[in-house]
Amino acid sequence: MSDVIEVKFEDLGLTKPLEKMTQKELREMCMEKLPQITGASGKSKEELVAIIKELFGIEDTEPTPAELNKENILKLKAQMRDLKTKRAEATNRKAREIERRKISKLKKKTRRLAKIV
């Protein structure tokens, strides 16, 4: 008899997607239901998700929001760099403050674009 235990992805009884599970939940699942994954207690969430997906042959075909909006994000970051140079060249405090606020708004926009679901 072999020590290899055959486990199907459906047999895990997941209530939510792997990416939405916490690191603690992933570790517990690996230790209890997936004995072929060793060293689960010392791995990060990203490593555990990657190992589980590799084990069951799951591929990520869906692009992330950051990948979808990459062009827009890069344009906004270029604008931010321009504003930072203008801010450095500004002579009075009011002009620097205005540029700082514009940069802050652009930062928030880039974060929102990367986060859109």
Notable characteristics:
117 residues; Rho termination factor N-terminal domain-containing protein; 2 domains; mainly alpha; elongated; single chain; coiled coil
Quick structural gist:
This protein has helices at residues 23-33, 45-56, 65-68, 70-89, 93-115. The protein has 117 residues and is mostly helical. This is Rho termination factor N-terminal domain-containing protein.
Protein architecture, described:
The structure is a single chain. The chain is mainly α. It folds into 2 domains: 9-56; 65-115. 60% of the residues lie in helices and 0% in strands. It has helices spanning 23-33, 45-56, 65-68, 70-89, 93-115. The longest helix has 23 residues, at 93-115. The chain starts with 22 loop residues before the first helix and ends with a helix. 3% of the residues are buried.
DSSP strand tally:
0
Count of domain modules: 2
Query: pLDDT under 50 segments (min length 5)?
Result: none
Total number of helices: 5
Write down the secondary-structure element order.
HHHHH
Q: Decide which structural class fits the backbone.
A: mainly alpha
Protein name: Rho termination factor N-terminal domain-containing protein
Organism: Alkalidesulfovibrio alkalitolerans DSM 16529
Keywords: Coiled coil
